[in-house]
Design the sequence.
């Protein structure tokens, strides 16, 4: 399994995670008392089953064993541990997740790690997420953009630093799905910002995407973000484009 398998953004396999099917299940949730000992089982299959169980259930006692599973040789265990840590976010997991993001060869694992880092909502994750958005494969860039949108509640300084790379991703990324997630993330961040130069730059980027992006989905996501933010300039542009039948 190499990173080229994730380069096609529309491949369903590229976006499967331990969460995808569990969220659809009507079966009873796993018992944490049964799953916790399995996280340290000598049998890899049992460790993976337990890690996937904590993608669905929350228990702070699982955090340290899940962190340890990030170092497993099997990528299926590592990716399950990453998603489980995203479901059980902890400040203790942030540095190990960052380290794994920077060294893991497997794109599926890195995708899970950036999702988990977004859920941790910790300023330490900002730099690594920005780097992932700029340099990683498409499937990882997509989730890095979404995770940067999760930084809206972390603090103003973090928001200000997250906005410029998201604008760049919105305007320049070659993959429409990544641009769409950048549009969504900018909308999340702008709702927490005062009206200043950084805010204005984000609105400019969203308006440019709305007016010029060749992908209908990106334009729709830019429009949705502008509507959520409620910026008067953005609302006026939307009204004008609708009046002219352009959106």
Sequence:
């Amino acid at each position: 399994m190499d990173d080229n398998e994730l380069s096609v953004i529309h491949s369903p396999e590229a976006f499967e995670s331990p969460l995808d099917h569990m969220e659809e299940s009507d079966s009873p949730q796993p018992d944490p008392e049964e799953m916790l000992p399995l996280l340290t089982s000598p049998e890899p299959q049992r460790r993976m089953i337990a890690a996937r169980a904590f993608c669905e259930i929350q228990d702070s006692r699982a955090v340290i064993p899940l962190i340890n599973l990030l170092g497993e040789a099997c990528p299926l265990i590592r990716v399950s541990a990453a998603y489980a840590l995203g479901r059980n976010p902890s400040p203790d997991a942030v540095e190990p997740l960052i380290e794994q993001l920077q060294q893991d060869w497997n794109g599926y694992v890195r995708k899970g790690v950036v999702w988990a880092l977004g859920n941790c909502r910790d300023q330490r994750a900002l730099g690594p997420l920005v780097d992932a958005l700029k340099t990683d494969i498409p499937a990882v860039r997509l989730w890095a953009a979404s995770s940067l949108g999760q930084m809206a509640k972390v603090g103003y300084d973090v928001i200000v630093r997250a906005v410029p790379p998201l604008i760049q991703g919105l305007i320049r990324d070659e993959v429409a799905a990544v641009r769409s997630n950048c549009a969504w993330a900018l909308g999340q961040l702008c709702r927490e910002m005062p009206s200043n130069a950084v805010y204005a730059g984000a609105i400019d980027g969203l308006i440019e995407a709305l007016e010029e992006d060749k992908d209908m989905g990106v334009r729709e996501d830019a429009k949705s973000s502008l509507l959520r933010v409620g910026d008067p300039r953005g609302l006026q542009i939307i009204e004008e484009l609708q009046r002219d039948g352009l959106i």
About this structure: The two ends are 41 Å apart (CA to CA). Residues 156-172 form the longest helix (17 residues). Residues 1-15 have pLDDT under 50 and may be disordered. The chain has 14 helices and no strands.
